[in-house]
Design brief:
about 220 residues, mainly beta, OB fold (Dihydrolipoamide Acetyltransferase, E2P), 2 domains, 5-stranded mixed β-barrel, about 10% helix
Length: about 220
């Protein structure tokens, strides 16, 4: 597995020289490659909903069967367009060791379709912070599932209505009871609320909109 991942990393890094017919990638980052992405681990499930980050970008989806799938935001329109909610999708990628989150490296809407290869890794949460000009919004509801970073760290929560709440790194332990499935959660901060979904980078958080408090400061890293 590790060898396959390293080989794939090298291939994707050199993607500009291995595209089918040596043609440039279409707008949106979709391209075809000479290698077979179906050699990677495959995960098939039904899209329950797409998730947006506090910048309003689609960069994740939830399987009805449970796992969260993450992908670069420039692929959001391509994945949404190929697989509407309620339809199955096959994802080739890497699953985090200790959490139900899968980093997408290729996808296909059905067995007859050629896999679409994701051109860059999405290992980190870079870019999921709210834009400076984002509006201030408040969301509230019941936690459906943790919101994961690609490597499996809890980075917030997904509410039953699909709203996403992100919290700063280093604060999840202090907020553990609010972020667990079934908990009541409310958050206020900068984010987005539109047809694609709602997401907020929490600045104040609590168990209801009437009981919000500032997000605690990040915990000091443990010394070894």
């Amino acid at each position: 597995m590790r060898v396959a991942i390293l080989v794939l990393a090298g291939v994707l890094a050199a993607a500009g020289g291995v595209r089918a017919q040596d043609r440039p990638a279409p707008r949106g980052g979709v391209a075809e490659f000479w290698f077979d992405p179906t050699q990677l681990p495959a995960f098939t499930g039904t899209v329950e909903r797409y998730l947006v980050n506090p910048r309003g970008e689609t960069d994740a989806l939830l399987f009805r069967e449970g796992p969260q799938i993450v992908f670069p935001p420039e692929f959001g329109d391509a994945v949404r367009g190929a697989v509407p909610p309620g339809r199955p999708i096959t994802v080739w990628g890497i699953r985090a060791r200790h959490a139900p989150v899968i980093t997408m490296l290729a996808f296909a809407p059905n067995a007859e379709a050629s896999p679409v290869v994701v051109e860059r890794f999405y290992w980190r949460l870079v870019g999921r912070s709210a834009a400076d000009q984002a509006e201030r919004i408040t969301v509230a509801g019941t936690v459906k599932a943790p919101y994961y970073a690609p490597q499996g760290e809890v980075a917030g929560a997904v509410l039953e209505d699909g709203s996403v709440v992100t919290v700063p790194a280093g604060t999840t332990e202090a907020l553990r009871d609010l972020l667990r499935p079934g908990a009541r959660l409310a958050a206020e901060g900068r984010g987005v609320a539109g047809e694609q979904g709602r997401a907020v980078a929490a600045e104040r958080i609590g168990d209801s909109a009437e009981n919000l408090r500032p997000v605690p400061p990040p915990a000091e890293p443990r010394r070894r």
